[in-house]
Design a protein that fits this description.
The chain is α+β, with helices and mostly antiparallel strands. It is built from 2 helices and 5 strands, in the order H-E-E-E-E-E-H. It has 2 domains: about 35 residues, no CATH class; about 55 residues, no CATH class.
């Protein structure tokens, strides 16, 4: 891994971003998969709404923990399907 890539990984980790290293066996290439909690509008036990109004499932359990530690995170301890609006809260 180059020094620049290592520095980027460390910077993301310190910024509260969950970084997971992945190696593909076909080409033996190192790749970095990141979760950016800044894209989350509302979090639920079964996934989250992005700020662009897309619902996504949590890819890793640690992503929930990363998001919940973000200041002012809006995490709800129930499935998004509980509410008639599917958990998307329209601001008035």
């Amino acid at each position: 891994m180059t020094k620049t890539l290592k520095a980027a990984v460390i910077a993301l980790a310190l910024a509260g971003t969950s970084v997971i290293g992945v190696t593909t066996t076909a080409h033996a290439v190192d790749a970095v998969v990141t979760f950016d909690p800044g894209t989350v509008q509302y979090g639920y036990t079964d996934g989250y709404w992005t700020k662009t109004h897309e619902f996504r499932s949590w890819e890793k359990p640690e992503h929930v923990d990363v998001y919940r530690k973000v200041p002012d995170a809006q995490y709800h301890d129930w499935a998004h399907t509980r509410d008639s609006d599917q958990g998307w809260i329209e601001k008035k």
